[in-house]
Amino acid sequence: MSTKVVYEPTKGLTDSPLSYCPGCTHGIIHKLVGEVLEEQNLIGESIGVASVGCSVMSYEFFNCDMQQAPHGRAPAVATGIKRVKPNHTVFTYQGDGDLASIGMAEVIHAAHRSENITIIFVNNAIYGMTGGQMAPTTLIGQKTTTSPRGRSLDQGMPLRIVEMLATIPGATYLERVSVHDPKHIIKAKKAIHKAFEVQTNKQGFSLIEFISTCPIGWGMTPNDSLEWAKNTMIPYYPLGVYKDTREEREPWIKE
Amino acid sequence: MDQRIIVAGFGGQGVMLLGQVLSYTATALDLHTVWIPSYGPETRGGTANCSVIISDTPIHSPLVEYPNILLALNEPSLRKFENKVTPGGVIITNSSLIKDHVFRDDVTVIEIPANDMALGLENLKTVNMIMLGAFMTQSTFLSEEAIHKTLEKTFSGAKAALLPLNQQALAMGYEHARSHA
Amino acid sequence: MAKVLMKGNEAMALAAIKGGCDAFFGYPITPQNELPEYLSYHMQEHGKIFVQAESEVAAINMVYGAAGAGARVLTSSSSPGIALKQEGISYMAGSELPAVIINVMRGGPGLGSIQPSQADYNQVTRGGGNGDYHLLAYAPESIQEAVDIIKDAFRVADKYRNPVMVAIDGLIGQMMEPVDLDKPIDLDLQSKPWAADGHGAKRGKNNKILSLFLDTKDLETHNLKLKVKYDQMVSEEQRYELVQTDDAELVIVAYGSMARIARSAIAMARQKGYRVGMLRPITLWPYPVQGFEALASNVTHLLTAEMSLGQMHQDVLIANEGQRQTHWFGRTGGVVPSADELFDVIENIILKGGVA
Questions:
Q1: Which CATH class is domain B3-179?
Q2: Which of C5, C9, C264 has the most B C-beta neighbours within 10 Å, making it the best mutation to test the interface with B?
Q3: Which terminus of chain A has a smaller tally of CB atoms within 10 A, N or C?
Q4: C107: CATH
């Protein structure tokens, strides 16, 4: 009897079981990043930077050299790595608490210097790891453990990261994608491909923002979470390409 | 004995460079030396001073609390350091900017109208070199030749055109101090 | 070789290049600015990396990243900036990464002053960051000594896979002295098979740089492994100088600029016939307890002299173990004491009959 391989797990991820909660979309995003690393033949030469938050253990999952960064500092750590290893692919994997709150300065200045790195930014509008606290990205009215009556305006309007970064001249490629259904997952993977190509072509800073879910933190079933991401998050965080200056950017020389 | 020197004046009078020329020369002669600047907000537009020690033995404390030579390029600097000069020491003043005489009678005073002389050279930036010329008459360790060599190094490359003027200022300061001693 | 006259901050920068420094990441702060300024020009001509970061926090994390990728990395700052770097320093100690950190100390707490100080003693020796860790910490007294230590510091950091701090006060950073930068050294460049340098394919396995051990037993095991290194540093890396202690009754314990001032005060005391010497710590961590053990029984009094309010005195008391009478003198807030002032303290101790 002959067998035909119809599906294989990507070599971009290790065999370690993922530590994410059931229904969380981190797993999908991990898989997409792993597949892109594999398809672009980057696995054996990449260095990933794990952050602090739900994805703190991502150094166990990506099948390449990894360094675990202090909370919010992943873009700075990646800068240090990339500057001394300019011909290797360097990426960070960060959540919204990590990137949009404590690590805001680091991501803005990495974009400002147009560090030739790729940032995978996962926005689930909440602090998942620490137990569901309010994040800068938490929507108005959204209940969290530190906004129990729902986020009010005096706690700030949710921050739109790619829109903000788009104002920075050094940012080369910025796109917001979602993984709430197969069609959007396919689109998200294309975005990751583009981001890593920007880096390989030495065109500078690239960041892909993912609308992600947190069923546990949101207090919803996985299905309801996907619906909430689609119907509530995306209207406030519209998908699309926010910056694409690949055409006008000369190869980024920092070697 | 060590030469313990304080050079003080306004920012912009070339006080730091004057002190550095002394330390560079001492280094070239394989002597022990240390140069310490005043630094920080006090150097922004206000007074500037630096201290220099030149010795033929290793220098312990790098600080000059009691100089045996004071180069005062303006009045506030003279007042600030005058009473610190050790008895028998030397005070060289820029008499163009210091109308009151030095009050001390236990030190040697050399008055150089450095600003007036610099104006004669049509370049106020030569004040420090005129003062340096005056210092040369009091130098224990640094030969004239060695100081000239330092100047040649200081004013080289893009600054080479400034060398003759500064050499002239140095010679004028030296001659004035020698003839008025 | 002929000596050149250089400012302390610039000489240390050049020393780092000579020590094999591959990359510098820093943020401006007085009184150390001449160091990054020098490197911003000269690293490029050596084909090395210079980045001015957006903050001290970012700078130390760039150091963490570059060190994790296997480079010889330097950062420099001054006291409040070093406080900001403690996060990354703790991470580097935890994940066993080598780096050299230069701290040109100024007055504190808070914004303090920009004048010379030794009030970072606790920050340097106790570690301002979290967790059970130590830095190897040097405190040179001259530009020459600073240069010699920094040239070798990258090798030492690599040897222990641990950050090394060189703490000098602003005075040494700002002053100029003749210095010989050409003394030969052994760079001892070893391969770093542990580095996460993007050679997973060639290596056949992934390297991970991390300080996270969720299992308590794993973390304790890791902590005990680190302790073995620290114990080795304590037994092998203590450095100190004894100055005229052979016949001394009173020994001053002082480091950095304060030790220079103490040398002058000792010369004044000796002229008066007072038998005074000095124990000069060169490493602040490990603290040179061996230097105290080397003092003969003629030493009956110890006088700590520091530009801080008793921080090092705590270590003197620990090292002394109650054996000798102890005294303390210090100025702080950026005030640098004169040799006269220290001499008066010495004479006072002696005349009060404390010393035979």
A1: alpha beta
A2: C5
A3: N
A4: 3.40.50.970
